[in-house]
Amino acid sequence: MGGTTARAQARRARVRGMLVATHAAPAAVVTVLALVFAVGVGLPGTRTLLVTAAVAAGQVSVGWSNDWLDAARDRRVGRADKPTVTGAVTPRALRTGALVALGACVALSLATGVVPGLLHLAAVASAWSYNAGLKATAWSWLPYAVSFGLLPAFVVAAGHDGRVVAGWTVAAAALLGVGAHVANVLPDLEDDRATGVRGLPHRLGRRASGVLAPVLLAAGSLVVLLGPPGPPSAASTTLSGCAVVLAVAAGAVGVARPHSRAPFLLSLGVAAVCVAQLVLAADAVAVPG
């Protein structure tokens, strides 16, 4: 009886560990954003589900590959929040999972069509390039700009109706991605440096990065406000105002108290506002080709 209970507990721990290693929160945000874009541009129900599934598989592959490739580095700095450090899952299990998820992503992406499929696979490949080494270089921001910028382009192309993605959408998504990258790195700057990771935020330093993240995110918010045709809606104007206020607060705290977690948390608030604006403007994401 005791052995059965122990095995059941070990299985539950592995399942939890695999779930944690997907980086569930950001993966869910990106997947939901793709779903909203698909609904906003009027994709049929089946195609919307296909696009959403492809993005979900890609995000899972990226999350698992990140923890697989970072396993040794995470152990060296004692990252207790990582399942490979606690022993809940092994790097080998994450490698297998990442490759299986990537295979599913390839199949689902190409099922939407060759052009949209290749656009999405380029976005996923860009994210994998970050995990594979670009995260430790001054170009660490580039995969985020490329992957986020290609997401709405993939969704619009999946419609096969002659429309193309609006330029402002690509710019806003790229700014959101780079801002999210800088903000996401802030809590782990010291641990990353200890293992030789020196991406752009590490090279700029905590104070400068604490200011840069909210500035980029607020810029994305302003692009969403001013990009769509016609006068800005009251809701988008209000949200953009909130984003600017949060960004100013984050920047001020980042300068005055660079080791505070407040710039990171405030930057997450700005990112959430920008995502909300993109959701509201989803029907303007596609324009006639």
What does the secondary structure layout of this molecule look like, with pairings?
Blueprint: H1 2-21, H2 24-40, H3 45-69, H4 71-76, H5 83-86, H6 91-111, H7 114-132, H8 142-157, E1 163-165, H9 167-185, H10 189-194, H11 200-204, H12 206-226, H13 234-256, H14 262-280, E2 286-288
Antiparallel strand pairs: 1-2
Helix pairs in contact: 2-3, 3-6, 3-7, 6-7, 7-8, 8-9, 9-12, 9-14, 12-13, 12-14, 13-14
Describe this entry's structure for a reader.
The protein is mostly helical and 289 residues long. It folds into two domains: 1-161, UbiA prenyltransferase (Tetracycline Repressor, domain 2, Orthogonal Bundle), CATH 1.10.357; 166-284, Up-down Bundle (Four Helix Bundle (Hemerythrin (Met), subunit A)). It is built from 14 helices and two strands. The chain has helices at 2-21, 24-40, 45-69, 71-76, 83-86, 91-111, 114-132, 142-157, 167-185, 189-194, 200-204, 206-226, 234-256, 262-280; strands at 163-165, 286-288. A two-stranded antiparallel sheet has the order 1-2. Helix 2 (24-40) packs antiparallel against helix 3, helix 8 (142-157) runs antiparallel to helix 9 (167-185) and helix 9 runs antiparallel to helix 14 (262-280). The N and C termini lie far apart (66 Å). The relative contact order is 0.11.
